[in-house]
Amino acid sequence: MDARRHAPEPACGEVAAPVHSVGFTRGGRRHTHEAVGMLRQMREWFHYLKWLLMIIVFMFILWGVSIGVGGMSNRPTTTDWAAKVNGTEIPITAFQSYARSLDSTYQSLLGDQYAQQRAFIRIGLQAINGLVEEELAYQEALRQGITASSQEVAEAITRDPNLQENGRFVGVQRYRNLFRAGRMSVEDYEDQVRRRLVIAKLRSLVEDAVTVSDAEVREEFGRRNVRESVDYLIVDPARLPGRAGPSEPEIARYYEGHRERYTKGEGRTGLYVVLSATDAAGAQAVTDDEVRAAYDRDLSTRFTVREQRRASHILFKVDHAAPPDTVAQAEARARGVLKRARAGEDFAALARTYSEDGTAKDGGDLNFFGRGQMVKEFEEAAFSLPVGGVSDLVRSPYGFHIIKVTDSRPGRTIPFEEARDSIRDELKVGRAKTAIAKRAADLARAAGGGRLEAVAKSQSLTVAETGPVHDGEAVAGLAASQPVVARMMALASGDVSEPIPIPSGQVVVQVTGTVPPEPRPLQEVRARVEKELRDESGRVAAEEAIRAAQRARGGLQTVARALKVEMKTQPDLSRGAPLPGLQPDPQIERQRSTLAPGTIGAPIVTPSGIVVLSVKERHDHHEEFDAQKESIRDGLIRQRQDRLYRSLVRRLRERGNVVVNDDVVRAMDRA
């Protein structure tokens, strides 16, 4: 992980809907009348003006009154909806209200950093996704016959802590008075409470079947509690002593002996239509005032380029909660490398050898970055150094950094004249995307049943052939079309897809036939064959070195000397945490969890090289299992329930017809 700061992301499917309600304005069954009768007895509770004003302010915030944080552009729009979900419109006012609520939440979480991070967080995109997913869930619930009774709505309102005083509902009269000064009626509020209850019932229906076994609880306990000290080697097969690269005959023999590894699966052929946003942009009208307004709105962010630095770093990872001896060991290693860097050794070479960050392969290069993109400690050091300067050790939440500044760019403001044409083009393309999304949806519906070619020609649209395509490939001549091919793989002959977004616009594709599996030619997979041959050679060399070490009663250090690589040690490693310099790998994880301390594991082939490891010691804290198991089980159940519900919402969106007003969303993101 590098030093870049990652803004928090709200969980998919969580929607901060305004408070709404239902149940005190419509007739119901006998128990509903009883609830209302009880509420009437509370009507005389209307006192404490201060309390009432507090509730009114609370309702104003939820309704998105125009005093909200963030604001919207004053640029006029041609529609009053932010999105359409299967024909149901989400009003711009609802979108603005929710976006402002998110804006306020992030402001409170990030404080002064929020202004720098807002462009990356994309409030508008998050808000519209949340509202679209809520509407999809509600429609699905209705389709399944899920309802909420008047009694359930009344009970939800009376249990709402925001409508209680001293633990009791405030009374019908005070409840109704809350709506007299606002924009929302009691009926609308109650309809929204009913809606929220219906969605909650759908979620419960989806989640109730989730279970977690005892074995899964114990595995999670191990992940949280087991700590290991691990010695390991990373062997680059290309650098093994005395081993030349594979010859041409060896490559050919290996390919012929493993042809099944290089086979393309079943493919597809098809017809497709592209609706290009760029082509449609020419018909969109954008005024000079709109261009100027967009420039002024983004002047302080997009068109103000702040000072930037380019730096390389060497990272020695150490957890912020690591014990003092672990921190001291990491600091000692870092100071040794720092001394060499300040003595003039090649910084990039040192980074490739010692850095435990993903940038090690690039010599530690982080490219250019501005303020607010790195963690505070890293940023302060990088912006205080001159070009060519090397920092002292910098401690961050990731560990110890050695930083070298390699370049600098001064800040500047991009003038309107320089930005004007690109802004105009962007506004046109943005409006065109909204228009073609609707046209593509109409085309897909009309072309159902294998009629794409006929319908497209009737609309003067160009139909092209995909040619034979296989999973993972792109359509020849259609840039970034892998999603189109992936969708084709899931369709049968004659099926027509929904609109598929690609960078240039929208694609509708019809599958016309299947292509049988076939082996990929050697020239196409040569690099992969050669790498697998090298990996196999490295694995065999490592096995030979392990056997020799075992005969000599040596350990992993003996293997390291034979292979001429450095042995690394990582103390206090938790389950699931990757070894420094390696990506998470299930084979390594399995071997770590089962390997007896003091023994050497079999070599493991990874993208980073051949890994050989030995567990020095293991602490499993098994005596704490009984005390933790129920809380672990509850946590796993909640995680799985959330994933299951998100999966449902994702499938609903894939199958549904969702059209987003991109102009409105972008305006909020730029506000």
Summary, kept brief:
This protein has 671 residues and is α+β, with helices and mostly antiparallel strands.
Number of strands: 21
Strand order of the largest sheet: 18-5-20-19
Shape: globular
The total domain count is: 4
Descriptive overview:
The chain has 671 residues and is α+β, with helices and mostly antiparallel strands. The protein has four domains: 30-208 and 659-670, Triger factor/SurA peptide-binding fold; 227-238 and 526-619, Chitinase A, domain 3, CATH 3.10.50; 266-286 and 422-516, Chitinase A, domain 3, CATH 3.10.50; 304-413, Chitinase A, domain 3, CATH 3.10.50.40. Helix content is 48%, strand content 16%. It contains 23 helices and 21 strands. Strands 18-5-20-19 form a four-stranded antiparallel beta sheet, with helices on both faces. A four-stranded antiparallel beta sheet has the order 14-7-16-15. The chain has a four-stranded antiparallel beta sheet with strand order 10-9-12-11, with helices on both faces. Strand 11 and strand 12 form a beta hairpin. Mean pLDDT is 85; it is low at 1-78.
Main traits of this protein?
four-stranded antiparallel β-sheet, 671 residues, Triger factor/SurA peptide-binding fold, 23 helices, alpha+beta, Chitinase A, domain 3, 4 domains
Topology, element by element:
Layout: H1 30-40, H2 49-63, E1 81-85, E2 88-91, H3 92-110, H4 114-121, H5 123-143, H6 150-159, E3 164-165, E4 168-169, H7 172-177, H8 186-207, H9 214-225, E5 227-235, H10 248-257, E6 263-264, E7 267-276, H11 277-281, H12 288-298, E8 304-305, E9 308-317, H13 324-342, H14 347-354, E10 365-370, H15 376-384, E11 394-396, E12 399-409, E13 412-413, H16 416-446, H17 452-458, E14 464-465, H18 482-489, E15 500-502, E16 505-515, E17 518-519, H19 522-551, H20 556-563, E18 568-574, H21 586-594, E19 604-606, E20 609-619, H22 625-655, E21 658-660, H23 662-670
Antiparallel strand pairs: 1-2, 1-21, 3-4, 5-18, 5-20, 6-17, 7-14, 7-16, 8-13, 9-10, 9-12, 11-12, 15-16, 19-20
